Here is the input.
Amino acid sequence: MVATVIDGKAIAAKYRIQIAQGVTALRAQGHLAALTVILVGDDPASAVYVRNKIRACQETGIRSELIQLPASTTEAELLARIQALNLDDAVDGILVQFPLPKHLSEKKVLETISLEKDVDGFHAANIGALVQGQAGLISCTPLACMKLLEAADVKIEGAHAVVVGRSVNVGKPMALLLLQANATVTICHSATNNLASITRQADILISAVGRINTIRAEMVKPLATVIDIGINRDANGKIVGDVDFEAVLQVAGKITPVPGGVGPMTIAMLMNNTLLAAQARRKISLL
Ligand code: GUN
Here is the structure.
């Protein structure tokens, strides 16, 4: 039997409608939710991602501003721009697109963005809040995966979830969210011995590695749910995920495609985080 494809594009479109309603309600109370995106340098992939984020703002009614800085921008200049945005009452969310040029510290950038405007959910205190199960802004990609699992009616409680990848911004928060939803969670990484023997135990298999063909058909338990966070370019320049999609489609029960899976939902969650940040700053509870 061929797996059901989880249509992230369609699910994200539904979320955007809900978010737009929240933005409209907030506007009726006198506050226009606003996101500022900073793009440093001329990485073409980052330019595409940023364009998609700005477009999503337009679709949800969020005011957006794109600040494009040259690759030669100094760290002091970048941090000063962020500090000015922290103080700007009209700005609810600040996102500095990564990767940054090598001479700029991503850590310093994340430490500088004020906690309540950290719509990426990358600030150490927001990650800490997640560890403690406290309210905070949650990293958009793992949150997107949780919403996709929910929309696809995947039972998380009691399931064995295997996350491949342990990055601070994706793999680790992904594992924490699954744990919070009562899954039994295993995190695999580059030093894991016999990866396939572990991934084959997964009811929910999530790949966040960024390498083509990390997950092949023989690594997947029949009827498992497979979520592909990877965004890679193949030899022909085509965007593909970490999962050998066509082969795994024949084994899995449910699977996300790339493109059209986690990506659009991640952007929807960024819009949601911006709305949440705007509501929190205005002390308006969730609508
Ligand atoms: N670069 C790739 N993905 C992301 C993301 O989610 N946030 C930021 N800030 N940069 C990225």
Remarks:
- Residues 29-115 form a domain with the Rossmann fold fold (CATH 3.40.50.10860).
- The mean pLDDT is 97.
